[in-house]
Write a structure and sequence with these properties.
The complex is a heterodimer of chains A (360) and B (207). Chain A is an alpha/beta fold. Chain A has 13 helices and eleven strands. With 207 residues, chain B is of the alpha/beta class. Classes of the chains: A alpha/beta (360), B alpha/beta (207). Chains A and B meet through helix 2, helix 3 and helix 8 of A and helix 1 and helix 2 of B. Bound molecules: zinc ion.
Chain lengths: 360, 207
């Protein structure tokens, strides 16, 4: 079959993402974000996000179609994120995707958000195709996961993930400790520009020898956040000004160090000289710099999709579905729901089994 | 044909002819699991109704528990988009009132009462039907603590409802369309603000 035309719907967190792809060609990546509405709460409020998704969905679909220059009737399939993510937010997308698929009489593919982040890379037309296996480090406000990807549509293994806060959340919380606004990532980055990353030695979570046996590829950022809080409190108790630039730079360095160290350890341990970065926190320039420099030393090739495809988006969901279709996978049944803790091994949810296809 | 979708209580989907006669009707009573069943129910009514064009989609706008309520509205909107037809938003209680009036037409005011979670109920008071065939609201929808509902109603005939007829929802939508009236806006009848608190000063962790 020729490259399938797929519309993808992504509503797992605070971005309403509608993407349209033809096979590996990106036609539209429309994103409506409710981030501004969350700013005054200092973090994503699930109910606020879900309300915003319902409002943004229809206009976003219309905008994406216009941008792609296609009509709904042209589509070969509809794709949607089934999980992981915020349950109430995911459900808006699932309801919308089902309504659209049934209305059009088109197949529906329910897919995994995290694997979608990996699929984003195949939409980069200018670069060589992604080689397998690859290690993938996905870092955002909602997740911090290290994956071993042997085959995008068939074999993805979770090596490790955060035990507490996602890295992006840690940025938000530390920004608050430093009286910086939300979202914390860019604010910490800005503040850190004038700071010394070696000024304060903040702890690297789950990096002690005793932790490494059980949590070699897992992350923890709550201890780091507490260490920053203590440091700030001590400054205040001493009556001295908090050296915001140094604290920001040193905190950021601790996060970046542990992310890159564990990702490259996975590359070495598994003999995989390829690392794919994804998720909104990849916007952090220091993370990209350190990853590129240390990977080069280790002989690991790093791939970073354009930022608009790293943050949550519908194009990556459509791209993953297009790959599933091209590899001969059946659509999903209509019976799936939102799964806020969907494991990464479930790349597609509720695929129709051959027997069901025959009888229906 | 007019399609109606409501997930304010269970999940209810129906198709009626332009004259109001039912063509297909499917529902799941479960007050949860809307996301799981909505697709199959839509597919079933479209299949059962047979040939004919769908000209409008009526969306039940609540009140109802938000998470479930949104699923039906989202599905109604994208279904309409797929067929390039308009959406008619209708308060779900008006459909419940039509059902009540048509099943036992007791004279005088009555209240539709539905679960609003958090030990509250949503109440709308109706009295008869207007010239357009639409149940007449005499007291707008309010949230009341479940325990206070009887005091609030002060003797008004109380109809507790836990399932909605999508056929009646479609009928209300058709009558509103006929009369050129708009019964609800684009925003669901949330009746509550998002449950959030503004962040205070970060709490101390000690040293
Ligand atoms: Zn994500």
């Amino acid at each position: 079959m020729s490259a399938p035309l797929v519309l993808g719907i992504e509503t797992s967190c605070d971005e309403t993402g509608i993407g349209i792809v033809r096979g590996r060609t990106l036609l539209s990546n429309t994103i409506a974000s409710s981030m501004d509405e969350h700013a005054r709460f200092g973090g994503v409020v699930p109910e606020v996000a879900a309300r915003a998704h319902l409002e943004a969905l229809q206009p976003s679909i219309e905008k994406a179609l216009g941008e792609a220059g296609v009509t709904l009737g042209d589509l070969d399939a509809v794709a949607v994120t089934s999980g992981p993510g915020l349950a109430g937010a995911l459900m808006v997308g699932v309801g919308a995707a089902k309504g659209l698929a049934v209305s059009l009489g088109k197949p529906l593919y329910a897919v995994n958000h995290l694997v979608g982040h990996i699929a984003a890379d195949i939409l980069t037309a200018d670069s060589d195709p992604l080689e397998y296996p690859t290690i993938a480090l996905l870092v955002s406000g909602g997740h911090t996961s290290l994956l071993h990807v042997r085959d995008l549509t068939g074999d993805v293994e979770l090596l490790g993930e955060t035990m507490d806060d996602a890295a992006g959340e840690a940025f938000d919380k530390v920004a608050r400790l430093l009286s910086l606004p939300y979202p914390g990532g860019p604010e910490i980055d800005r503040a850190a520009a004038a700071g010394d990353p070696d000024a304060i030695r903040f702890p690297r979570g789950l990096s002690r020898a005793s932790d490494m046996a059980k949590h070699r590829y897992d992350f923890s950022f709550s201890g780091l956040k507490t260490a920053v809080a203590r440091w700030v409190e001590r400054c205040e108790a001493d009556g001295s000004d908090v050296p915001v630039a140094d604290v920001a730079a040193s905190f950021r360095e601790a996060v970046v160090d542990v992310l890159v160290t564990k990702a490259l350890a996975a590359c070495t341990d598994l003999g995989v000289p390829r690392l794919l970065l994804g998720g909104g926190v990849i916007a952090n320039r220091r993370l990209r710099e350190v990853a590129l420099a240390r990977a080069a030393e280790a002989g690991v090739t790093v791939r970073i999709p354009p930022l608009s495809l790293c943050t949550d988006n519908g194009a990556m969901i459509a791209a993953l579905a297009a790959e599933l279709i091209s590899s001969g996978r059946q659509p999903s049944t209509l019976a799936f729901g939102a799964d806020s803790t969907l494991p990464v091994t479930e790349i597609q949810v509720a695929e129709i089994q051959e027997a069901e296809t025959v009888t229906s | 044909m007019i399609l109606a979708v409501d997930t304010s209580l269970g999940t209810a989907v129906a198709l009626i002819d332009a004259d109001g006669s039912p063509r297909a009707d499917a529902a799941a009573h479960d007050p949860l699991g809307h996301a799981e069943v909505i697709g199959a129910l839509l597919q079933q009514v479209v299949h059962d109704a047979g040939a004919g064009d769908i000209t409008h989609v009526v969306a039940g706008m609540g009140p109802g528990p938000f998470t479930g309520l949104r699923i039906g509205i989202a599905a109604a909107r994208t279904f309409a988009l797929g067929r390039a037809v308009p959406v008619i938003p209708v308060p779900s209680h008006v459909a419940a009132a039509l059902t009540a009036i048509e099943t036992d037409a007791a004279p005088g005011p009555f209240a539709i009462v539905t679960d609003a979670r958090r030990r509250e109920v949503a109440i709308t008071v109706f009295d008869g039907i207007d010239d357009d065939g639409i149940p007449r609201i005499v007291a707008e929808t309010v949230l009341v603590p479940r325990a206070d509902a009887d005091d609030h109603l002060a003797g008004i005939d109380r109809r507790d409802v836990d399932a909605l007829s999508a056929v009646d929802l479609a009928r209300v939508g058709a009558r509103a369309l006929e009369a050129g009236r708009s019964l609800a806006g684009a925003e669901p009848l949330y009746l509550r603000h998002p449950d959030v608190t503004l962040p205070g000063i970060p709490k101390r962790v000690g040293s």
